[in-house]
Design goal:
The complex is a heterodimer of chains A (207) and B (570).
Chain A lengths: L3 H19 L6 H15 L7 E4 L21 E6 L15 E5 L7 H6 L4 E5 L11 E3 L4 E3 L6 E3 L5 E4 L8 E2 L1 E4 L2 E4 L24
Antiparallel strand pairs in A: 1-2, 2-3, 3-4, 4-9, 5-6, 6-7, 7-8, 10-11
Chain B lengths: L3 H20 L10 H5 L18 E2 L12 E8 L5 E2 L4 E3 L2 E6 L3 E6 L5 E5 L13 E2 L3 E3 L2 E5 L4 E6 L5 E6 L14 E3 L2 E5 L10 E6 L5 E6 L29 E3 L4 E5 L20 E6 L5 E6 L15 E7 L2 E9 L4 E8 L2 E9 L6 E4 L6 E3 L11 E3 L13 E3 L4 E7 L2 E7 L13 E7 L7 E7 L4 E8 L8 E3 L3 E4 L6 E6 L5 E6 L9 E5 L2 E8 L3 H14 L10 E7 L3
Parallel strand pairs in B: 1-34, 3-8
Antiparallel strand pairs in B: 2-40, 4-5, 5-6, 6-7, 9-10, 10-11, 11-12, 13-14, 14-15, 15-16, 17-18, 18-19, 19-20, 21-22, 22-23, 23-24, 25-26, 27-30, 28-29, 29-32, 30-31, 32-33, 34-35, 35-36, 36-37, 38-39, 39-40
The chains are: A alpha+beta (207), B mainly beta (570).
Chain lengths: 207, 570
């Protein structure tokens, strides 16, 4: 984290989480209402202007700066974080992101347009059966899903390189704003997987 | 002949009539009682392995070694889903119930294939479907029970398919899910949970068959203060795995159920030093209370992902000139285990390898505890090769026993090894918690992988082996006609063998690879054999690994179909 604004944002996010934990325990109607609003905000999809926060580990909830990501290193798991409120959007795992830095020279044109200084972000939910895309093949520089071994190429729209996944991971456009890594727009593509077995049925469903 | 105009006018009406006919509730339904489950009519297949002893045997004998060559398909039905179709077609007096991946239940008239009703379940959008499969229903009273991928048990009305109750046993966001067919005993519906790769704490839970209310819940990892908790360092017991994802066996005389348990997590044992009870074990649970009344751990401190979830077969065995009530388990660890069950608990008889196994250096003749060769035990920073592979000598596809031949039939895989190294891992709720990277190797010069093995349980010796070039993921059916049925290979065949000699007598090429449990049943005096064909999940995964190791490409088309066969006229 190199950006002083990001440091301040992270401190705010931590305070926010502490307050939230106290939240409804006070049994105050107003506090509970505020908490309901925040639950919605936590589950809202990534918004333009959001930053990225570490999803796990000792830095969980703190903002990811450009310097935290090194070319060639394994993907970092992240959630969007509202810059204004400091609220981390971790209310649903459908918001889980995987972020890596790729040599900008190696990015496909479409992917370069979504990248910020070589940093690319994708949905961390596999398009096959919804597992977390947490493995990394260093030699090939590919994401890999541990469940069924689908591989995706982060330098080229996270297209499927091998395995049973039917389509690429949803991409999240990024930009640098005043030196800070920032989400530029909503997901491009479908987040999650499609459940087979919902073919048309000539007759009333049983429920 | 009707006038063309009149026929056009009547057409929508005819459609309405046929629509109403399919929407009618099913015909008469025979309630499933405890007495029927303990002693099922020969014509029926009322539970996962047909009988509580998990033999996978039907006494039906109209289809025999002499006439099986005349077996032909009589009806089939698409399931409309892809992925691994593993469930048996379960039949109660002419009504067939089949489950598919994504927790669909199909009810057919068993002799005609007419679809009576269908239950479909919408999965929550944030679910992780690690193993998109389901292994079948349980029948009890007038209801049909299924365990679901979002960790619930749903009870359906057997005649209409409408939901009677739908109860969560755990939170799927915590890595819990279910794939097994429930076990119905004495008013209780028992299920176990999957998630050994997701940092769960395994358990078996019993629900009241009428209401879905929880009767008891027994963890397969003891908590603080319970015997065995000290086999786990620190808090590792909270996320240690020990899933239960195959239906247990039941001894009605002892009122005891016997469940196999899966691997600990993370995968390599150095990350949780100790025996890690009750992973990779058989546990005896009292039906009424859930009290754990005995166990045997096949191998301690597992480091090979060798889940021992297959329930042991309850078979009487000769021992020192007397007959004992046995537990027989062809294990994923590559050994064939013989144990004795009693009211007092479970005791070890003997064990011997049935595939190449390079991990055990010995098995204690008194306790059955194996000793290990550490050069084949992976750990963090210690990359080793071990055989059989992490999918074991036999994975979940059930073995079968025939009292006609006295043989146990094992669907095995030989000539496969894994290369694994541990990797430190942080627990993240619901996410992969294996902490290992692995690769795959095929033994040099291997001329086959899949095997169907027959073991004579009187002598303890192997009687015959049928080899397949392909891996074998075929659950086994034995019949009173002296036959053994299984699919399981990438070439999509369903096969029948002479149970005594091992000679292949019949085969039929289906739509996809078969990992479904085959069953047989009789309606109106005609014997049928039924199976689902639909490749996927781990059978697909192993095939991909073999292809990568060998530089080959094996294509097994997906998509489920229920097949029903009968003898053609002479």
């Amino acid at each position: 984290m190199s950006n002083p604004d990001d440091l301040e944002l992270s401190r705010r996010a931590l305070r926010r989480r502490t307050v939230l934990r106290a939240g409804c325990a006070a049994a105050l109607a107003g506090a509970c209402r505020a908490r309901a609003d925040e639950t919605d905000e936590r589950s809202a999809p990534p918004q333009a202007g959001d930053a990225l926060a570490f999803a796990f580990g000792p830095s969980a909830g703190t903002v990811i700066g450009p310097a935290d990501l090194v070319i060639g290193a394994k993907q970092t798991l992240a959630y969007p974080i509202n810059r204004a409120s400091g609220l981390v959007r971790d209310g649903t795992r459908l918001n889980q992101l995987i972020v890596v830095r790729v040599d900008p020279e190696k990015l496909a044109a479409d992917t370069r347009a979504r990248a910020a200084d070589g940093v690319v972000a994708y949905s961390g939910v596999c398009s096959h059966t919804g597992c977390d895309v947490t493995d990394w093949i260093a030699a090939a520089q590919h994401f890999k899903c541990p469940c069924h071994e689908s591989e995706f190429d982060p330098s080229d729209a996270a297209r499927v390189v091998s395995g049973p996944a039917p389509w690429q991971l949803a991409a999240l456009p990024l930009k640098i704003v005043d030196g800070a890594l920032t989400i530029a727009g909503p997901f491009e593509g479908k987040v999650g997987f499609a459940q087979p077995g919902l073919d048309p049925f000539n007759g009333p469903p049983s429920q | 002949m009707l006038d063309r105009t009149l026929r056009s006018a009547l057409a929508p009406l005819a459609l309405l009539v046929s629509f109403a006919a399919t929407a009618q509730p099913a015909r008469e339904y025979s309630a499933v009682t405890d007495a029927r489950l303990v002693s099922p009519e020969a014509r029926n297949w009322l539970m996962y392995r047909r009988t509580y002893d998990s033999w996978g045997y039907s006494p039906l004998d109209k289809i025999t070694t002499r006439n099986v060559a005349r077996l032909v398909p009589v009806w089939s039905a698409s399931t409309g889903t892809t992925e691994g179709h593993q469930a048996p077609p379960i039949v109660n007096d002419g009504i067939m119930f089949v489950t598919t991946p994504f927790n669909q239940v199909l009810a057919f008239e068993a002799k005609s294939g007419e679809l009576l009703w269908r239950y479909r379940r919408q999965m929550p959008p944030d679910i992780r479907m690690g193993h998109p499969t389901n292994r079948g229903v349980a029948l009890y009273g007038d209801k049909v029970y299924m365990a679901t991928s979002d960790a619930k048990v749903v009870a359906l009305d057997a005649k209409s398919g409408s939901v009677v109750w739908d109860v969560a046993v755990e939170d799927y966001n915590g890595g819990y899910y279910m794939t097994l067919a429930p076990l119905a005993v004495r008013g209780k519906i028992m299920v176990g949970v999957s998630g050994g790769e997701r940092g769960i704490r395994g358990f078996v839970v019993a629900l009241d068959a009428e209401s879905g209310k929880q009767a008891w819940k027994t963890y397969t990892i003891p908590g603080p203060g319970e015997p065995g908790n000290d086999t786990w360092p620190g808090d590792s017991w909270k996320t240690g795995g020990a899933p239960v994802w195959i239906t247990g066996s039941y001894d009605p005389d002892l009122h005891m159920t016997y469940w196999g348990t899966g691997n600990p997590g993370p995968w390599t044992g150095d990350q949780r030093p100790g025996d890690n009870l009750y992973t990779n074990s058989v546990v005896a649970l009292d039906v009424e209370t859930g009290k754990l009344s005995g166990h045997h751990q096949y191998h301690w401190n597992d480091s090979w992902d060798w889940d021992e979830v297959s329930a042991p077969l309850l078979i009487d065995l000769p021992r020192d000139g007397r007959t004992v009530h046995g537990l027989v388990h062809p294990a994923r660890d590559g050994y064939l285990w013989f144990l004795e069950r009693a009211a007092s608990g479970i005791s070890f008889i003997s064990a011997r390898p049935y595939v190449t196994q390079n991990v055990f250096t010995s098995v204690d003749p008194r306790t059955g505890r194996p000793a290990y060769d550490d050069s084949h035990k992976p750990a963090v920073g210690h990359k080793v090769t071990f055989c059989p592979s992490l999918w074991g000598g036999k994975d979940w596809p059930p073995a079968a026993y025939s009292p006609k031949t006295g043989y146990l039939y094992i669907p095995a895989n030989e000539n496969l090894c894994s290369i694994m190294e541990g990797e430190e891992i942080e627990y993240r709720r619901g996410q992969q918690f294996t902490g290992a990277v692995s690769d795959f190797a095929v033994a040099e010069g291997a001329d086959h992988i899949g095997e169907l093995q027959a073991w004579n349980l009187k002598t303890g010796e192997r009687a015959w082996t049928h080899e397949f070039a392909s891996p074998n993921w075929g659950p086994v059916l034995t019949t009173g006609g002296g036959l053994v049925f299984e699919g399981g290979t990438t070439d999509r065949y369903f096969r029948a063998f002479d149970g005594a000699s091992g000679k292949q007598l019949w085969q039929y090429r289906t739509n996809s690879g078969i990992t479904g449990v085959p069953t047989t049943f009789e309606v109106d005096g005609v014997q049928y054999v039924a199976v689902q064909s639909g490749w996927g999940v781990d059978a697909q995964g192993m095939t991909g690994r073999i292809d990568r190791a060998r530089g080959t490409e094996t294509i097994v088309p997906q998509g489920g179909v229920v097949w029903v066969f009968a003898l053609a006229a002479n």
